[in-house]
Every structure is written in C-alpha cells, then in structure tokens.
TrEMBL record:
One of its GO terms (molecular function) is transmembrane transporter activity. The chain crosses the membrane at residues 6-25, 37-55, 67-88, 95-113, 143-160, 214-234, 241-258, 264-285. This is Nucleoside ABC transporter membrane protein. Its main location: membrane. It is a multi-pass membrane protein. InterPro entries: ABC_transp_permease. The lineage of its organism: Bacteria, Pseudomonadati, Pseudomonadota, Betaproteobacteria, Neisseriales. The keyword Oxidoreductase does not apply. The keyword Membrane applies.
Length: 306
C-alpha cells in the first residue's frame, strides 16, 4: 500500500507548485489591500508566453519560466492602471483580466497545439533521495518545486520580519494613515500587484513548460480561482496557504491515481473533486467569522487615491 502511495505523494508536490506561486502572489497583493480576481487570466497568459518562449528559443523552461513571469507582470500592470491609478472597481477589473487572459491565450496558443517540450528532469539529491518513502517524495523533484518552497520561505520572512512586510500590512489596513505619515501607498500597492502577476505567470509557465509540458487551451483548469480561495482558506497567512496548496494538490493528483488505488468512483466525480473541496473548505472557513475578521485587511478591495 505504501509503495502505491509514493507516486501520489510525489505528484502532490508538483501539482501544488502552481497553486503555491499563484497563491503567494495573490496573498501579497491582498495584504496591501488589493484583491485581484484576474489570477486565472494571468496564469493562462504566463502559460502561453512561457510555452511560446520555450518553443521558439529551444531553451525550454530556462526561457519559458522568466517569460511567463514577465507576461504575468505585464497583465497585472494593466489591471493596476485601472484598479489603482483610475480607482476602478477591483473585482470588475479582475474579472475582465481573466476573460481577456482566456481569450488571448487561446488565440496565441492555436499555433502551438501540436508542439511538445522536453520538460525538466527531476533532481535526485544524493543520499537523501535513497531514503525509503521520504526520499522519492521530497528529494526527487524538479528544480521549480524547490523554487516554490524558497518563494514561500521568502514571502513568509518578508511579511513577518521585515519593514517591507509591515508597510504592506499598514497599507492594507489603513492607506489613509500610511499616506499621512509619508508612505507612497500607490507605489507599494503597484509593487504588490506586479509581484502577484509575476508569481501567477510563473505558475502558468510551470504548467505549460514543466508539469505538462505541452499547450492545451484553458490548461489552468480553474487553478487561478483555487489560488484566490486558498488565500481566504489561509486567513492571509503563508504557512496555512502552503498546507492548503498541498491539500488541493493531493486531491488533484488523487483523481489520476484513483483507479490504480482501487477507488471505484465515476471519472466525472473524480475530476470535480478539487472544486468540490474548494467549496467545502470555503463554507467551513466562512463559518469562523472571528478568524476572518482578525486577519482580513481592513481596506481590501477599497479603491484609494491620495
């Protein structure tokens, strides 16, 4: 039984990686008081940009991952201009970005439907990868999985231990007070939104150049919405977001291994499991209003102009 669970556990880390990138980016943006519902669109834009760069240059993920991050940042910049500089409704701008990302990625991606990439070979860490059970799960992954863990550690440290983290929280709680004592509120929010776009684009590029690695229309399959839900599930805390990403990653990968594990459920139900889990978790979290009120940034979603 344990041998059959090793591929599931190992696959969970890879399946959760796009959610970690996108979720961390959205968490930072929301900490600054900006809710960007365009994560799904930014993931798709990053996915097609990364795949196109990898295919055209022949460099694979080495070109695809930075290209995806830059494309996601560019999409986030468009959102920021409308939502921050023009003080438009943030939810509407985010939804528009998602619709735009779906259409743009489908249009550009039609030229890459028949392409496939070599992907990225997993790294086998000497000695550690030979440890029974733990070795194949934790120490035989591709480099981007370890990069996602490094990104988590960096974001958690910045938010908890640095002046920048305190500034983000201050702007998210009361932009008026932060502006009154001389902090550039819009500049800080721009930086947070652009970081969120880069992380979502990086997650999308990982999907198309490493995890799959090929282009499929709408290949994000709702991961952007799950990433937004993860931020609420995590109560805006990086540690809980990481655990939530692995939970949803496990549910996602389990559907592919269900038949091999002897789970007799309809394929359609298995495919819907990640989204059902998202709904259940949000319902449970919403019942704990005290937890949400304690951690919810007070100015989240509220436009601000100095």
């Amino acid at each position: 039984m344990m041998d059959s669970m090793i591929p599931v556990l190992a696959g969970t880390l890879a399946a959760a990686t796009p959610l970690i990138f996108a979720g961390l980016g959205e968490l930072v943006a929301e900490r600054s008081g900006v809710i960007n519902l365009g994560v799904e669109g930014m993931i798709l834009i990053g996915a097609i940009a990364g795949f196109a760069a990898a295919a055209e240059t022949g460099l694979g993920p080495a070109a695809g991952l930075p290209a995806g991050a830059l494309a996601g940042m560019g999409a986030a910049l468009v959102f920021a201009v409308f939502a921050l500089s023009l003080a438009a409704n943030q939810a509407a701008c985010g939804l528009a970005l998602t619709i735009f990302g779906i259409g743009l990625s489908a249009f550009i991606g039609q030229h890459y439907v028949s392409y496939s990439l070599p992907g990225l070979k997993p790294l086998s860490i000497p000695l550690l990868s030979d440890i029974p059970v733990i070795g194949p799960v934790l120490f035989h992954q591709d480099a981007v999985v370890y990069l996602s863990l490094a990104a988590f550690a960096l974001v958690a440290w910045v938010l908890a231990k640095t002046r920048l983290g305190l500034l983000l929280k201050a702007v998210g709680e009361s932009p008026e007070a932060a502006h009154a004592i001389g902090y550039p509120v819009l500049a800080i929010r721009y930086g947070a939104v652009l970081f969120g776009g880069a992380m979502a684009g990086l997650g999308g590029a990982y999907l198309s150049t490493v995890y799959t690695p090929l282009w499929v229309q709408n290949m994000s399959a709702g991961r952007g919405w799950i990433a937004v839900a993860l931020v609420v599930f995590a109560a805006w805390k990086p540690g809980r977001l990481l655990l939530g990403a692995y939970l949803f990653g496990a549910v996602t990968i389990l559907q592919f291994h269900a038949q091999g594990l002897g789970i007799a459920l309809p394929v359609q139900l298995l495919a819907a499991l990640p989204y059902l889990a998202t709904i259940v978790v949000l319902v449970l979290i919403s019942r704990d209003r005290r937890l949400l009120q304690l951690n919810l940034p007070a100015s989240l979603g509220k436009p601000y102009l100095p």
